[in-house]
Structure formats: C-alpha cells, structure tokens
Write a structure and sequence with these properties.
1 helix, about 70 residues, Molybdopterin-binding protein, 4 strands
Length: about 70
C-alpha cells in the first residue's frame, strides 16, 4: 500500500481497548514515544489489530499550533 501522508511511524501495538463503538489503539514508536489512536471497533476487527502486532501510526493534520508559557 502507498499513502501520501509523510508522517508515518512504524511501531508495536501495546494495547487495544474497545468501547461501545470506538477503540483506543496504543502504538509504541520506540524511545519512550507512544501514540494513541481512536478508531472504530469495526476498523480494529478488519485490520486484525492486537497487542504485540506491528502497525503504522499515520498522522495527517491540517493545522499545528505552538504555545509557550
């Protein structure tokens, strides 16, 4: 599969927690960085996502905000 998004990071799935309709998928990217994605339960099932599996975190954002104290 090819994708246009440039912000893609390969990691290990550390946790999949399903709710009523939405699941939280935590992906360990290494060096202490963990990304959490909120996706549908149907997507989790279709992709066969399970703890210990490999996955990509693909981040596509139209805005980035910067703040300071």
């Amino acid at each position: 599969m090819k994708i246009s998004a440039r912000n893609r990071f390969k990691g290990k799935i550390v946790d999949v927690v399903k709710g009523a309709t939405t699941a939280h998928v935590r992906i360990d990217l290494g060096a202490g960085a963990i990304v959490t994605a909120s996706i549908t339960n149907e997507a989790v099932d279709e992709l066969g996502l399970k703890a210990g599996g490999d996955a990509y975190a693909v981040i596509k954002a139209s805005d980035v905000m910067v703040a300071i104290d």
